[in-house]
């Protein structure tokens, strides 16, 4: 599993740059264009929020747990558009500080270990782009991946009433995934071996499920699947829009980029993180169908 230090590396490092690029409560997960790429990124993210809130029957007063909440974009939506109540959990201190400053009820807590005694139970639960971080390469190599996901679904199960719904979206490996031994940061630029090696650098402590089937199977028998759709093409467009926003000039942001230069020369891992901004390995992985992306709605039975 990714630990707090890993998630601080991935998210807290870019906290201010992210907020200056995407807004204080920007989404850092695939939007929902449904193939209509004339939509703006903001419209497509809002369409995603609406889809999730509708799928989970979130209305006025619903109590919602947003696991792996990032900078709280979904929390912002359900508070303002549905008058719902929400608690958000993240493992990035920078995200939690920013969310609290913006008035959201967000804390640093590992969502995989939440118990009903902590906050009570919920009407609905979301985990948007969190599962990717729950199983490490080492756990996968030790054959523990399914156990990790089953334990997670057990946690969610205990927090919902029968009939309560859970939404998750997650990247998965897809039909062109290569062998782990082939991953190599020195491989040909643009190759699956190279971009997958960068992915592992960008998301330390993280490994993906092998297709949605693995996730759906691990959710049984406590959950039935209500709906499933691939967001792979939508994610490619999302990343293309993120790249423009990260590059858009803003004096403070460019100053922050400059302030990171010394670290670039002294920290090899950080140098790989910078390469990610140039290459967008996840976009290449989606294009090559090394990876896919799924939106899954579950109901507790
Ligand atoms: C890709 S971001 C998605 C953020 C947000 N859901 C969104 O859509 O913008 C992944 C998030 O997962 C969080 N995360 C990963 N593992 C976690 C864990 N075990 N407990 C709580 N949060 C976790 C990270 O801190 C980060 O906020």
From TrEMBL:
<keyword id="KW-0949">S-adenosyl-L-methionine</keyword>
<protein>
    <submittedName>
        <fullName>Cyclopropane-fatty-acyl-phospholipid synthase</fullName>
    </submittedName>
</protein>
<dbReference type="InterPro" id="IPR029063">
    <property type="entry name" value="SAM-dependent_MTases_sf"/>
</dbReference>
<keyword id="KW-0443">Lipid metabolism</keyword>
<dbReference type="InterPro" id="IPR050723">
    <property type="entry name" value="CFA/CMAS"/>
</dbReference>
<dbReference type="Pfam" id="PF02353">
    <property type="entry name" value="CMAS"/>
</dbReference>
<dbReference type="GO" id="GO:0006629">
    <property type="term" value="P:lipid metabolic process"/>
</dbReference>
<keyword id="KW-0489">Methyltransferase</keyword>
<keyword id="KW-0808">Transferase</keyword>
<dbReference type="GO" id="GO:0032259">
    <property type="term" value="P:methylation"/>
</dbReference>
<dbReference type="GO" id="GO:0008168">
    <property type="term" value="F:methyltransferase activity"/>
</dbReference>
<comment type="similarity">
    <text>Belongs to the CFA/CMAS family.</text>
</comment>
């Amino acid at each position: 599993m990714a630990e707090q230090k890993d998630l601080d590396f991935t998210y807290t490092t870019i906290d201010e740059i992210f907020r200056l690029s995407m807004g204080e409560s920007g989404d850092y997960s695939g939007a929902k264009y449904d193939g209509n790429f004339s939509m703006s990124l903001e419209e497509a993210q809002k369409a995603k929020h609406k889809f999730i809130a509708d799928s989970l029957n979130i209305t006025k007063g619903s109590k919602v747990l947003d696991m792996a909440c990032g900078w709280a974009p979904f929390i912002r939506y359900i508070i303002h558009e549905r008058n719902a109540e929400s608690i958000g959990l993240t493992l990035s201190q920078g995200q939690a500080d920013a969310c609290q400053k913006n008035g959201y009820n967000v804390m640093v807590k590992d969502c995989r270990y939440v118990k009903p005694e902590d906050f009570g139970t919920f009407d609905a639960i979301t985990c948007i782009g969190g599962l990717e971080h729950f199983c490490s390469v080492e756990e996968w190599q030790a054959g523990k991946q399914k156990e990790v996901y089953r334990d997670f679904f057990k946690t969610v199960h205990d927090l919902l009433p029968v009939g309560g719904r859970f939404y998750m979206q997650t990247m998965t490996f897809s039909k062109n995934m290569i062998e782990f031994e082939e991953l190599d940061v020195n491989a040909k630029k643009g190759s699956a071996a190279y971009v997958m090696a960068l992915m592992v650098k960008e998301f330390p402590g993280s490994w993906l499920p092998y297709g949605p089937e693995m996730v759906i199977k691990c959710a049984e028998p406590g959950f039935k699947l209500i709906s499933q759709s691939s967001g792979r093409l939508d994610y490619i467009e999302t990343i293309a829009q993120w790249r423009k926003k990260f590059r858009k000039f803003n004096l403070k942001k460019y100053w922050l980029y400059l302030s990171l230069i010394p670290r670039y020369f002294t920290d090899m891992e950080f140098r790989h993180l910078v390469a990610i901004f140039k290459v967008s390995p996840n976009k290449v992985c989606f294009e090559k169908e090394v990876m896919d992306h799924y939106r899954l709605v579950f109901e507790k039975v």
